[in-house]
Design a protein that fits this description.
Elements (H helix, E strand, L loop, with lengths): L3 E2 L10 H8 L20 H20 L7 E4 L2 H14 L7 E5 L4 H12 L3 E5 L9 H7 L4 E5 L13 H8 L5 E5 L12 H4 L3 E5 L10 E5 L14 H4 L7 H39 L4 E2 L10 E5 L5 H10 L2 E2 L5 E3 L2 E3 L2 H5 L4 H5 L1 E5 L6 H19 L2
Parallel strand pairs: 1-11, 3-4, 3-5, 5-6, 6-7
Antiparallel strand pairs: 2-8, 7-8, 9-10, 10-14, 12-13
Helix pairs in contact: 1-9, 2-9, 3-4, 5-6, 9-13, 10-13
The structure holds pyridoxal-5'-phosphate (PLP).
């Protein structure tokens, strides 16, 4: 049976060029000097590893139009989000202990703010509108004289809805409020990821969403923005993250960035066509299907739908039996249904929030998969409804 992988917002396979770049480092004989050294060492082996790390930093900095010195490599998007929020708070340079965050952020952001709340911070959660977009006016209405930090993601991982981060950054300008943006799902999928234009002070990124390796990411920290590293140790990464750099992962990240820089425009256009074809193919078979965030600008690879009467986790399991990998915003955890916090925040009822499916496309998906996948979805939906 053919296999379908439509869960690229969860993770992506390595691009072959990334795999080759990483393989070149694996098993390199020490004499070859291929990057096994410690980038902090001053001898030849260290210098070689340092060069690889700095090349990757430059590629990433070029893609998002910032200075290489503003990039801090991390263990992934989660650590980057944590570092932005908790590292800014720990700097002791913030003007208050009130923060504003979108209620549908990734758990990496929600968790960091819950930690701040436990430490005595006041957090105001801003809901998106029915299309899954956080309006700049809603953020503005939540600001207080003691607001120190605002977090709004660039694109939502469940719906793909693109957020008006430039407008939000503009309204924060000159007010002494720091702006953190989770750019994990935006990198590669938005034509321009531009923290400077967005006036973001922090931007979190991850390699494995763009065909790079898992376990490596980066945080853009605007030069001069408050930052107190959370990993205590050596002075690596501008003293923001102690610990020997993950050279292998960083090399893979750098190569993934290069690949997306080269063919991103073409791939985004291709994915948007496939995504819309999938929506049409599903609607033709399931007329009561609802496309979530249909009226919002969306990253081109993401399609989130509600299938009335079809529990998301049953759909995922049924599709998995047909070798089709997709994801549901809701999950059944030890007998009780956990609803998609994103769809609930958009004002969808619990039924809709429990019956959503996310298809996220990427490298390797082709037009020939669309019809058969839609057919599988329709058949599984019919059997779930008949249960
Ligand atoms: N932020 C968003 C929006 C994400 O989608 C993810 C991954 O699912 C993360 C953060 C976490 O990234 P990582 O898996 O690299 O820790």
């Amino acid at each position: 049976m053919p296999r379908y992988y439509f869960d690229h917002n969860a993770t992506t396979p390595l691009h072959p060029e990334v795999a080759s770049a990483m393989a070149a480092l694996l098993g390199a004989a020490p004499a070859a000097g291929l990057g096994f050294g410690n980038p902090s060492s001053i001898h030849w082996a260290g210098r070689e590893a340092r060069r690889l790390v700095e090349d990757a930093r430059e590629s990433l900095a070029r893609l998002i139009a910032v200075d290489p010195g503003e990039i801090v490599f991390t263990s992934g998007g989660t650590e980057a989000d944590n570092l932005a929020i908790l590292g800014a708070a720990a700097s002791g340079r913030l003007r208050g202990r009130h923060a504003v965050a979108a209620s549908f952020e990734h758990p990496a952001v929600l968790g960091a703010y819950r930690k701040l709340a436990a430490d005595g911070w006041d957090i105001t959660w801003v809901d998106p509108d029915a299309n899954g977009v956080v309006q700049a006016e809603a953020v503005e209405g939540s600001l207080r004289p003691d607001t120190a930090l605002v977090s709004v993601m660039a694109a939502n991982n469940e719906t793909g809805a693109v957020q008006p981060v430039a407008a939000i950054g503009r309204l924060l300008r000159g007010r002494g409020i720091l702006f953190h943006c989770d750019g994990v799902q935006a990198l590669g999928k938005l034509a321009e990821v531009r923290p400077r234009e967005w006036r973001a002070d922090y931007l979190a990124l991850s390699a494995h969403k763009i065909n790079g390796p898992k376990g490596v990411g980066a945080l853009y920290v605007r030069k001069g923005a408050p930052m107190q590293g959370l990993t205590l140790g050596g002075p690596q990464e501008r003293e923001s993250r102690g610990g020997t750099e993950n050279v292998l992962g960083i090399v893979g990240f750098g190569k993934a960035v290069e690949v997306w820089t080269r063919f991103g425009a073409q791939e985004r256009a291709r994915l948007a066509v496939l995504r819309d074809a999938l929506a049409a193919a599903l609607l033709a078979r399931i007329p009561d299907l609802v496309v979530n965030s249909a009226l919002a600008p969306r990253i081109p690879n993401t399609l989130n739908v509600t299938l009335p009467g079809c529990k998301g986790d049953l759909m995922v399991m049924g599709l998995d039996m047909r070798e089709a990998a997709v994801s549901a915003g809701s999950a059944c955890a030890s007998g009780s249904v956990k609803f998609s916090h994103v769809l609930l925040a958009m004002g969808k009822g619990k039924d809709a929030a429990a019956s959503s499916l996310r298809f996220s496309l990427g490298l390797g998906n082709t037009e020939s998969e669309i019809g058969p996948l839609a057919e599988h979805v329709a058949r599984v939906a019919a059997s779930v409804r008949g249960m």
